[in-house]
Design brief:
Number of helices: 21
Shape: globular
Oligomer: single chain
Radius of gyration: 26 Å
Order of helices and strands: HHHEHHHHHHHHHEHHHHHHHEHEEHEEE
Largest sheet: 6 strands, mixed
Strand content: 5-15%
Structural class: alpha/beta
Distance between the termini: 87 Å
Helix content: 55-70%
Length: 542
C-alpha cells in the first residue's frame, strides 16, 4: 500500500507541536519561570472565574481589563477550567490549546488565499512555528515563548484577527456571502473585545480597500472595506454605550495610550532588545531576522505585483489576491510593531507582547514567500526533505530533553505550584487566625489565588492603603450580601519596611510581623474596614 507522505507529514507536524508545547512545561525548574507565567496580570481569568463560579460573588462590581478578553480567552478558559478543576492545570491546557490554535489559523491563511494549495506548504509552516517553543527548550528564554502561551494579554485579539482574515480571503476566493457575514461578526467581536483589533485587522483591511480603489477598483474589495469600517465603528459605539450605562466596568488605558513623549525611549528599547536577540545568536534573533527579511521581500513583491495589476486583464491568474494579502500583511506587521513605540509604551522587555503578532505573521510570511515563488513547480521532493529533516531534528530534541530533564517532575510542579512567599503568608495567617488583608497589585491577587488557607488580599495603591479597583471586584472591600466572603475585616498588610512607616502612623504598632520575601513583610495590624462612600480605611475597633 502506497503511503501518502503529505498526509503523514501533516499529521506528524501536529504531533510535534503538541509534544513540544507540553515539553516547555517539562523544563520549568527555576522560580523566575513561574514568576513570568503566574503573575497578577495573567491571573485575571482565574480570579474572575473563581469569583463568579466558585465564591459566588457574581459579575456585578467587577472592573475588567481594558481589553475585556471575552472571546476567545475568557470563553475558552472558562470551559477548560470547568473541566480541569484546578486553575493551574487549566492554565497549562489553555496555553497549549491557544498555541496550537495560533499555528492552525496562521497556516490556514494559505488555504484561504488558494483553496487548492499543496498541503506541504502548510505542513512546512507547522514545523517552522515551533521555534517559539525551542527558545525555552534550548535556550531557557521563557519570556519569549510566553508570548504564545500568555493569558489575559492580546493573543485573543490576534486570534480574532486571524479568524477574520481567514474568512476575508475565503470570501474573496469563493464568493460565499456566509464567509463575508462571519468576517463581520468577528470584526464586531474583535473590536468590542480589544481595541488593538483596530490595528491588527481593521487598519490593514482599510489599506487594502484604499489601494484597491487606486489600482484595481474591484467592487468586492470596496464593499468589504466599507462594511468592515462600518462594523468597527458600530462595535466601538456599542462598547462605549455599555461602559457608559455601567453594564460592566472597564479600566482605562491610562499611560498606555498616546504618551508620545516616551516614543524615543520606546524606540530605543525595542531596537536594543532585538539587537540583543541577534547578537545572542539564538532563535529569538532568527525570528527578528526573518521578520525583517520577509518584510522587505513582501515590499518588493508589492511593487512588482502593483505593476502587473495596472494591466489587470493581462494577469495570468488571480494575482490581485496575493497583492491584497501582501498589503494586509505589510500594514499589519508595520503597525503592530511600531504602535507601542509611537504610543510610548515600549518601556521594557515584556512589552514585546504588544507587537508579537508582527512576528507570528512574519513567520507565516516566510512560507508565503516560498509558496509564491514555487507555486508552479510540480515536484514536492524538496518540501518532503525539508519537512522530514526538521521533524527528525525535533524528534532528537524531544528525546534528548526527556532524557536530560526531570520532565514529569517539572510538569507536576507547574500544576501544583505553591509559592514560598504565599506559604509564608498562609503560615502567618493560620498562626493568628486571620483571613483578610491588603497589598500592592503584584501581591494581592497572587496571594489570594495561591493561598491554601483561603487567605484574601485585595489591592491598595500605596502605604496609606487607598483602594485600587484595578481588575478587581469592588464589592470585595465592603460588607456585601453575596458569595462566601461577605464581611471582610482587614488585619493584614504586605509592605516593605519603608512603606510601613506611613501605615504605622495611621494604625499604630503592628501586633506581629514576619518576612515573606526579600524586602517585603506581612504585618498583623489592628482591625480595619473600608467606607463605601469615602473609600477610606477606618478602624473597626473604635
Amino acid at each position: 500500500m502506497k503511503v501518502n507522505t503529505s498526509k503523514l507529514f501533516y499529521a506528524g507536524s501536529w504531533l510535534v507541536n503538541l509534544l513540544l508545547a507540553i515539553l516547555v512545561f517539562g523544563v520549568f525548574s527555576e522560580e523566575w519561570f513561574f514568576n513570568i507565567y503566574y503573575n497578577s496580570d495573567t491571573l485575571y481569568l482565574a480570579s474572575f472565574y473563581k469569583d463568579i463560579f466558585v465564591d459566588g460573588t457574581g459579575f456585578k462590581g467587577w472592573n475588567l481589563n481594558g481589553a475585556p478578553n471575552f472571546f476567545p480567552d475568557m470563553s475558552l478558559y472558562f470551559i477548560v477550567r470547568s473541566v480541569a478543576g484546578n486553575f493551574k492545570l487549566a492554565y497549562v491546557i489553555f496555553s497549549i490549546i491557544q498555541y496550537n490554535l495560533l499555528v492552525f489559523l496562521l497556516g490556514s491563511i494559505l488555504k484561504g488565499i488558494n483553496p487548492k494549495v499543496n498541503r506541504n506548504y502548510i505542513t512546512f509552516f507547522n514545523v517552522l512555528f515551533p521555534v517559539y517553543l525551542l527558545a525555552t527548550i534550548l535556550h531557557g528564554s521563557f519570556q519569549y515563548t510566553f508570548d504564545v502561551f500568555s493569558q489575559s494579554y492580546h493573543n485573543g485579539c490576534f486570534i480574532n484577527s486571524l479568524i477574520a482574515l481567514n474568512f476575508f480571503f475565503r470570501y474573496l476566493t469563493r464568493n460565499n456571502r456566509w464567509y463575508f457575514i462571519a468576517m463581520l461578526v468577528f470584526v464586531f467581536v474583535g473590536v468590542f473585545n480589544d481595541r488593538l483589533f483596530l490595528i491588527t485587522f481593521v487598519a490593514p483591511v482599510t489599506a487594502v480597500f484604499l489601494l484597491n480603489l487606486m489600482w484595481i477598483k474591484k467592487k468586492t474589495i470596496s464593499k468589504s472595506g466599507l462594511w468592515v469600517l462600518g462594523t468597527a465603528i458600530l462595535a466601538l459605539i456599542t462598547f462605549n454605550i455599555t461602559k457608559k450605562n455601567s453594564v460592566y466596568e472597564c479600566i482605562g488605558l491610562g499611560e498606555k495610550f498616546m504618551n508620545f513623549s516616551n516614543a524615543a525611549p520606546s524606540f530605543k528599547n525595542m531596537i536594543s532588545q532585538h539587537t540583543d536577540f541577534i547578537v545572542s545568536a539564538d532563535l529569538r534573533g532568527l525570528i527578528t531576522i526573518l521578520t525583517v527579511f520577509s518584510f522587505f521581500i513582501l515590499l518588493f513583491l508589492f511593487f512588482r505585483i502593483a505593476k502587473q495589476t495596472s494591466w489587470f486583464k493581462r494577469a495570468k491568474e488571480n494575482t490581485h489576491i496575493y497583492w491584497y494579502f501582501i498589503i494586509f500583511s505589510l500594514t499589519s506587521v508595520f503597525l503592530t510593531l511600531f504602535t507601542p513605540v509611537v504610543n510610548g509604551y515600549y518601556l521594557g522587555p515584556s512589552c514585546i507582547r504588544y507587537s508579537t503578532l508582527s512576528f507570528f505573521l512574519s513567520l507565516f510570511n516566510v512560507v508565503f514567500i516560498i509558496y509564491y515563488f514555487t507555486r508552479y513547480k510540480k515536484s514536492v521532493k524538496w518540501q518532503n526533505w525539508v519537512i522530514g529533516g526538521l521533524m527528525c531534528v525535533y524528534g532528537v530534541i524531544i528525546v534528548k530533553t526527556i532524557i536530560q530533564e526531570p520532565v514529569v517532575a517539572n510538569f507536576k510542579k507547574v500544576v501544583t505550584y505553591y509559592p514560598e512567599k504565599v506559604k509564608a503568608v498562609d503560615q502567618f495567617a493560620q498562626k493568628h487566625q486571620l483571613q483578610y488583608g491588603v497589598a500592592g497589585y503584584w501581591d494581592a491577587k497572587y496571594t489570594t489565588m495561591f493561598s491554601k488557607q483561603n487567605v484574601r488580599f485585595y489591592t491598595v495603591i500605596n502605604e496609606k492603603l487607598n483602594l485600587w479597583y484595578h481588575v478587581m471586584n469592588r464589592n470585595w472591600y465592603y460588607d456585601y450580601d453575596k458569595g462566601k466572603y461577605q464581611k471582610p475585616e482587614f488585619r493584614m498588610v504586605i509592605l516593605s519596611p519603608e512603606q510601613f512607616e506611613t501605615t504605622r502612623q495611621i494604625f499604630g504598632e503592628p501586633i506581629d510581623s514576619t518576612q515573606v520575601e526579600a524586602g517585603k513583610y506581612i504585618y498583623y495590624i489592628p482591625e480595619f474596614k473600608y467606607n463605601r462612600e469615602t473609600k477610606q480605611p477606618y478602624s473597626n475597633t473604635k
